[in-house]
Amino acid sequence: MTLNAELRAFYESRQQQIPAEIREIMNRAAQDLADSGRATRALTVGDRAPHFSLPSATGQTVVLEDLLVTGPVVLTFYRGAWCPYCNIALRSLQRHHDDITARGVRLVAVSPQIPDESLSLTEKHDLAFDVLSDLGSDTAEQYGLAFDLPDDLAAVYDKLGFELQRVNGGHPRTLPLPATYVIDRDGIIRWAFVDTDYTRRAEPTDILAALDALA
């Protein structure tokens, strides 16, 4: 099963459990975000990847330029450990991690959550790649991915117990669009996936094909 087939199956099973009034709020917010054109304004192929220096789940500082010294980078943005679609996507990337590193590539994942949340996520899913904290979504903003939740959806997330005020270190409203970039050793984006729909993610097989195209 492909990653997006797995995500779609989860979405369809989840819809039956969500009250109609909450589904309406979620669907309206999703449509508004799609209509905003945010995805078309994000960085894409041919753009230079902005610098970042972010803390990892284990307390180390990870710098993009340092990663690029040893080879290309796969950089993926996700919403947080509270998002089941993100967890499915990260587990899929972990299953393909050996294939990625065999190509001399580093995989890093970035979310707006605090390092303690990233550490819990890393341990829960046995992630072998760096999970970085972009508090305030400053890095996501540089990549054109950051957006603010509308009031009614933020209230739904609060009601669902996602605790974004705590897990995002005092920045509960700002999240990144799901996005994955392949960045070459010169710091240029050579492949990009950006989508306003958090139920869709970059297929690992497409990422591997993009890495092979670099060679």
Bin the helical content: 40-55%
Radius of gyration using CA atoms only: 16 Å
Mean pLDDT, to the nearest integer, reads 96
The low-confidence parts are none
Shape: globular
User: In which order are the strands of the major sheet placed?
Assistant: 5-4-3-8-9
Which structural class do you get from the secondary structure elements?
A: alpha/beta
The description of the largest β-sheet is:
5 strands, mixed
Descriptive notes:
Helix 1 (3-15) runs antiparallel to helix 5 (84-95). 45% of the residues lie in helices and 18% in strands. The protein has a single domain, classed as Glutaredoxin. The radius of gyration is 16 Å and the shape is globular. The protein has helices spanning 3-15, 20-35, 38-41, 64-70, 84-95, 97-101, 115-125, 138-142, 151-159, 164-167, 204-214; strands at 53-55, 61-63, 73-77, 106-111, 130-133, 146-148, 174-176, 179-183, 189-194. The strands form 3 sheets. The chain has a 5-stranded mixed sheet with strand order 5-4-3-8-9. A two-stranded antiparallel ribbon has the order 1-2. A two-stranded antiparallel ribbon has the order 6-7. The longest helix has 16 residues, at 20-35. A hairpin with a 5-residue loop joins strand 8 and strand 9 (189-194).
